[in-house]
Model the fold of this input.
Amino acid sequence: MIKVCKFGGTSMADGISVRRVADIVNADPARRFLVVSAPGKRFGQDTKVTDLLYETYEELQVTGKLGAAFTKVCDRFRSLVSELGISFDIGALLHDTEREIYGEPTKDFIASRGEYLAGVVTAELLGAEFINARETVKFTADGKLDPVTYELLSVALQGKKRAVVSGFYGADASGKVKTFSRGGSDITGAVVARAAGADLYENWTDVSGFLACDPRIVDSPAQISALSYQELRELSYMGANVLHSESIFPVREANIPIRIKNTFRPEDEGTDILPVSKYKFGGKTVTGIAGKKNFTVIFMEKSLMNSEIGFTYRVLSVLTKHGISFEHLPSGIDTMSFVIDSEELKGGVLEQLCEEIKELVAPDRMRVHKDIALIAVVGHGMSRNVGTSARLFQAIASAGVNVRMIDQGSSELNIIVGVDNENYERTVSAVYREFFGFKI
Ligand code: ADP
Ligand code: ASP
Ligand code: MG
Done:
């Protein structure tokens, strides 16, 4: 039995939590391979080491020198080692790191140092081998994970009783350090699990599992005991950021289950994420709710749009020309909407896009809704239970919220509704109350 355990920033925040990490790992001999994140926040107003490292990069850009932010990073690691009470020369390692930053002063290299230092210190604490992701996690020239990673990692892990791999980064085709997107240590954990042929990928964090909705919106939401890979993908992509939305791909191919566990309450059961074949449908309608703010919806209407060959193609060509991707494309017989992350439309891009679309396809009507929040209601049970959409829209209407857009995924696994940003929290609470009862 092999378990790969990923410990997130909250689990690595200080000496007390890293000791817990060691206790968890020592409690089960199957927990042979660890992936660690950079230390996260120790308290509400604290700054994550990764954020301090991005600040370090900015300071270096402006002054040409490492400044106050890097000093804070060094202080975090000095305190961590002293709280752990291990005899390890952290000063020398920080000194080398400083030198290496001047040698490779890129944003990704600097950002990766939190995971690197955390990995070295954890390996030291556990008496385990440290495996540097730079040597083993590789990206192709177009930024995708290079499959050679699996070979390199499995060779590196072979025969090791215990090893610690640094999360979040790897090396690009030219050998330079490249990071995944934020929260990417979850992906490293999944990649290591696959390379190790693990029986289970344990993802240790600061909540006792996947919750039915964001705990920052609804107080103590219901805990989900199991969900399928597809449900996880939908929920995490739509904002349930307890797990990176791309972390299912490596484990799904190998049918390795993921278990989300709480470092601070290891006795709690957690949430299992399983292939749909092993998923027990418990009769529930909705598995979870997630959402994100700040989208723009471009709506267009044209009589006989559906019979006009190449209409969609021409609109898409405008987006492609501007290098813009869209999130959703709900359409009717004579209508079509593009839902786009508002970040992509800044600096006059939206206006230019609308102008070009008008010129190319001459819609009868065109409207733009800005500041839209998307809310995804997800669950395999939705297609089995009659009347789910009626309940959903009734709940939203009763909360006095106007629905700006609806998109039912073709997988019948989700319904996405768009509402004004200002109604986001209210809508999530109302939908939660409808499907999960009154625990608000
Ligand atoms: P880590 O540092 O362990 O990677 P993250 O901060 O990335 O942890 O993810 C855990 C956090 O995700 C939780 O503290 C919680 O606030 C947030 N979160 C958002 N949506 C959900 C959800 N549906 N279920 C559980 N946690 C959620
Ligand atoms: N430390 C990185 C971040 O803050 C990666 C991670 O925590 O997964 O995004
Ligand atoms: Mg995370």
